[in-house]
Design a protein that fits this description.
about 110 residues, alpha+beta, 4 helices, 5 strands, about 30% helix, about 25% strand, globular
């Protein structure tokens, strides 16, 4: 049974640390890349994004992470990808649903 108590829902959100605390370098790259791509509203979200865990691939070098609960399939309607070039060492693919960043893939 789902708990619809608003105070519990807010508490649940704060159970997750901020991306900027867990991955400060990657948060900075996201902000820089999103601003360069003309995605200022998404860049403004980064300081409040919650870290919902690493990508589940087996690569030790993977630094991709979720900023929303994982789904069991495709994100569905309202999903788009934004590819960011953030320098010589990283390319980032950001998954956005509606107006929210849900996953950041660092390649």
């Amino acid at each position: 049974m789902m708990d619809h108590n608003p105070s519990r829902m807010v508490e649940h959100l704060t159970d997750y640390r901020l991306v900027s605390e867990v991955e400060p370098e990657l948060a900075g790259l996201l902000i820089k890349g999103l601003r360069a791509a003309g995605e200022g509203e998404l860049a403004d979200q980064v300081s409040q994004l919650r870290y919902h865990g690493r990508c589940e691939c087996d690569s030790d070098s993977c630094r991709s992470f979720y900023t929303a609960p994982r789904t069991d399939g495709a994100y569905g309607p309202g999903h788009r990808n934004i590819t960011l070039d953030v320098g010589d060492t990283h390319m980032v693919v950001v998954d956005v649903v509606e107006a929210d960043i849900v996953f950041a893939e660092f390649i």
